[in-house]
Structures are given as C-alpha cells and as structure tokens.
Amino acid sequence: MRRTIVAAWDVPKDGVVPALVILSVCFFAGGLAGCLLAARVGGAGETSLNDYLEAFLLAAQEGAVDIPVLWSQIWDTLRWPLFTLLLGFTALGVLGLPVLFGVRGFLLAFSIASFVRAFGSAGWLLACLVFGIGGVLSLPVLFIMGVQSLLSARALAARVRGDGKGRVLWGRACLIRCAMCGGAICVCILLERTVVPALLTGAAGALLNR
C-alpha cells in the first residue's frame, strides 16, 4: 500500500511548482473576475438573482431542496476533472488548461459572491455549505489532475516543436492518481447527496428565523 501511494506522486519534481503556480494564478484571476462581476450586477439582473437565491433559501428551510438525479450530479462533479484529464492528452492543453481553470475559478467565485451579496455575512455560511463541503475534495482533485495534465501537455508540445522527447505522464502512476481522485469524487458526491441538504435545512431555518 505504501509503495502504491508513493508511486502515485511519481511526477517530475522540477515541473510541479511552475505548473501549480500557473494554474493557481489562472484560477484566482478567474475568481477575481467573478467577484467583480457579481459586485457589478444590477437592475433586473440583480432582482432576478436575489429572487432566485431567496427562493432557494425558503426551499432549503422547508427541506424541499431537490436532490439532483444521480447521473446529473455525477456529471456536474466529474466534468471539470474529466475535461482536465482529456486536455492532458493534447499539446493544446498548454493553453486549454489555464483557460479551464480560469473559467472554473470565475464560476465558483461568482456563485459565492452572489450568496454574500444577497444575504450579507450569512451568505458566507450558505456558500460554505453549498460549495465548500464538496469543494474540500473536488478542488484538490482538480489541481492534482491539472498539474499532471499540464506537465503532460507541455511534454507533448515539446515533441510537436521538436525540442525534445519530454516525459508524457500516462502510466501506472497516472492510473493510481486517477483512481485515488475518482475515490475522492465518489465521497464528494455522497456528501453532497446526504450531508449538504440536511445542513442547508438547518442553516436556512436559523437564518430566516433569527
């Protein structure tokens, strides 16, 4: 078991930090853009957004939050790591992965900022329940797969340019990492289907009755 875990992190050490920095910068840049857009939403757009969030809060208080169909929730959770994994099989991932992380950061930050703008400080609690519980697992998975895929895409790009052979990271270690990340995603889906609805019901009731 110990050898399996060690093999899972068998990646070129000299490329991990730059890849992580690139993806992190893109993710947080997208997040900043999402926060700025949420702060600038006004007029009919702001009214519609607030109405939607208030309806969501009332439904949560009554315990009437619809649990998504299983396959739909699997797709919603799996699509980001899946796209990240697929981009690692092409040299275009060198550009596609930073864009993907920027979009992911934008959408996540926009959603969180919308909760905070609609409900004030209480919005932080709701956002943590809706996005944070699953995000504790799904975001690390996304970055693990992203670093792996960016290193592989960079190696493929080097081959296309004829600059060198590079090391494409698709082997036993990759399969182990994917299996571990898949397990984390399964736990994430389980939490979002069982723990999150119950916590939302309690939190919504406390916020609306205070």
Key structural traits:
210 residues; mainly alpha; 0% strand; globular
Describe the protein in words.
This protein is mainly alpha-helical and 210 residues long. The chain is built from seven helices and no strands. It has helices at 2-8, 13-40, 43-61, 70-87, 93-119, 121-161, 172-209. Helix 4 (70-87) crosses helix 5 (93-119). The longest helix is centred in the last third of the chain and has 41 residues, at 121-161. Mean pLDDT is 80; it is low at 1-10.
Mean of all residue-level pLDDT scores: 80
Q: Structural class, from helix and strand content?
A: mainly alpha
Radius of gyration: 20 Å
- How many DSSP-defined strands? 0
Proportion in helices: over 70%
| Count, helices | 7
How are the elements arranged and paired?
Layout: H1 2-8, H2 13-40, H3 43-61, H4 70-87, H5 93-119, H6 121-161, H7 172-209
Helix pairs in contact: 1-7, 2-5, 2-6, 3-7, 4-5, 4-6, 4-7, 5-6, 6-7
Short summary:
The chain has 210 residues and is mainly alpha-helical.
